[in-house]
Design a protein that fits this description.
With 316 residues, this protein is mainly beta. It has 3 domains: 3-67, OB fold (Dihydrolipoamide Acetyltransferase, E2P); 71-176, no CATH class; 223-315, SH3 type barrels, CATH 2.30.30.100. The protein has 5 helices and 21 strands.
Length: 316
């Protein structure tokens, strides 16, 4: 069966369109063709599979099935309502639906990162497992819909600003992006991200859930960049020979000249990052936040480097 993503859906009128993975021709979708009544509302960006017939005015989808993650399938077995996935951003966030990272913005977005985050849903007061939280600010209020997942809720507690690194991971959760996570000991895990907390990531590795502390992760990248990224990595043999491992609790991470990095980002100047196990990455800064740096390497591959894994950083 062909697959695609919901391109547009009008919940009130019960119809929309599917953007196909294998063709530029959009497919008309009527609510009566959807096989998952558990979803109260389709969202733009959700992945689906379907069959196609030729209608009077073009292609029409039939037997439309929303593609569920392993976690969502478990929720169904447990009788829980599913918060529709694939939403492209938070209320007011200018984030596109294509999986590109260029539209990420951290302005006015807050969460409590002490609890697991799996999905954020747009405003939908009818959703059984969603609640609206309004957080006051000086001149305005930020409203978020927080999804309850597996008994853990992101509640209205003292919150921290959502960083570019958080936004990046949340976006990969929404789009179920196939990725690689590089751990110490030359381990590479192919996985999608199911859940994020302040200190760990829950990964779906070939159908098996695996919780990985963030301190174990050196860098991550999308599988579409795998070949280019592997070709771009160099190794500093002197650093590798030191056989460094994860920083111990309380140990001081590598001091970074944030002002120089910020200027390099603004000017498009190349920087070079050497990790504790000797890997060397060279490229321009896409974004930088307190815990991660995203580089666009010289051959176009993109990688997110966790700052606790950095041995040294130099700016041209």
């Amino acid at each position: 069966m062909p697959t695609g993503r919901i391109k547009y859906y009008n919940f009130d009128k019960g119809f929309g369109f599917i953007a196909q993975d294998s063709s530029d021709a959009d497919v008309f979708l009527h609510s009566s063709a959807i096989k998952h009544p558990e979803y109260e509302e389709l969202r733009v960006g959700q992945r689906v599979k379907y069959s196609v017939i030729e209608g009077e005015k073009g292609l029409v989808a039939q037997n439309v099935e929303v593609l569920l993650t392993p976690t969502e399938r478990r929720w169904l077995r447990q009788g829980k309502a599913i918060i529709p996935r694939g939403y492209g951003g938070f209320p007011g966030q200018n984030q596109d639906q294509t999986g590109n990272d260029e539209a990420l913005s951290a302005k006015d977005k807050e969460i409590d990162k002490s609890e697991p985050v799996r999905k954020h849903s747009p405003r939908d007061t009818s959703a059984p497992h969603a609640k609206q939280v309004t957080k006051p600010r000086t001149q305005s209020a930020t409203t978020e819909i927080i999804a309850e997942t597996d008994g853990a809720t992101v509640e209205d507690k003292p919150s921290k600003q959502l960083s570019f690194g958080d936004l990046y991971i949340l976006k990969q959760i929404n789009f179920e992006t196939s990725m690689f996570f590089a751990l110490y000991g030359a381990t590479q895990i192919p996985a999608t991200v199911l859940e994020m907390t302040l200190s760990s990531l829950t990964l779906n590795n070939n159908g098996a859930e695996q919780q990985v502390p963030k301190t174990d992760v050196k860098y991550c990248y999308k599988d579409v960049d795998a070949e280019k990224l592997q070709a771009a990595i160099q190794v500093n043999e002197d650093v590798k020979a030191q056989q460094l491992t994860q920083l111990e609790d309380g140990a001081q991470a590598c001091e970074l000249d944030t002002e120089a990095v910020g200027k390099a980002q603004k000017d498009g100047t190349a920087i070079e990052i050497t990790l504790r196990e000797g890997e060397v990455f060279r490229g321009t800064v896409d974004w930088v936040c307190p815990y991660e740096i995203k580089l666009i390497l010289e051959n176009g591959a993109k990688v997110v480097i966790f700052r606790h894994a950095v041995y040294k950083l130099s700016v041209d």
